[in-house]
């Protein structure tokens, strides 16, 4: 059974910054899986779809199905993971519950005020305007978490809290509710 830290928060909430600190402070190695890594490496170039006259939306479901299966494959192979994700599509949580059913998933919410999300989104300039607000209003609805953190708090402090709580975590957790 692999240990999976599943970090869920709106776009621009501070997930990547928090995970960097978790990696620094963690006493054990963790594999960090994120759509941002695929985008930043060029493996996923959403802009190339439009440039070739293809709608990304028509391929989005297949892409995320593959990403979710890859997360499961890494966990099934015995890797301890940090998964950075935004569950913005209704079926994803249920799909991932099935895929990760044999693993100890610690489900963490990163809540960040809307005004902070909007400021960060504008400063980044690499996200569609309004995506953080759309996430803010939708992604946490109806979900229970093992831990909720404040995205305005210092990332190093949040990482310390997260690692302490994760150390004492006993599955099954909130991810499977």
UniProtKB/TrEMBL annotation:
- What InterPro entries does its record include? P-loop_NTPase (IPR027417)
Q: Which SUPFAM superfamilies match?
A: P-loop containing nucleoside triphosphate hydrolases
Please indicate which superkingdom the organism of origin belongs to.
Answer: Bacteria
Mind telling me what this protein is named?
Answer: Chloramphenicol phosphotransferase
**Native species:** Actibacterium mucosum KCTC 23349
């Amino acid at each position: 059974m692999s240990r999976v830290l599943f970090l869920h928060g709106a776009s621009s909430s501070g997930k990547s910054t928090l995970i960097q600190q978790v990696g620094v402070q963690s006493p054990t190695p963790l594999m960090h899986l994120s759509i941002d890594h695929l985008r930043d490496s060029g493996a996923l170039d959403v802009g190339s779809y439009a440039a070739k006259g293809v709608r990304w939306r028509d391929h989005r479901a297949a892409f995320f199905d593959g990403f979710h299966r890859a997360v499961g494959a890494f966990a099934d192979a015995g890797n301890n993971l940090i998964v950075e994700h935004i569950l913005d599509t209704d079926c994803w949580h249920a799909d991932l519950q099935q895929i990760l059913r044999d693993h100890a998933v610690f489900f963490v919410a990163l809540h960040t005020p809307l005004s902070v999300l909007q400021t960060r989104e504008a400063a980044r300039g690499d996200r569609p305007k309004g995506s953080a607000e759309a996430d803010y209003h939708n992604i946490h609805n109806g979900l229970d978490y093992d831990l909720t953190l404040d995205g305005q708090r210092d990332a190093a402090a949040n990482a310390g809290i997260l690692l302490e709580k994760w150390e004492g975590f006993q599955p099954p957790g909130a991810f499977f509710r």
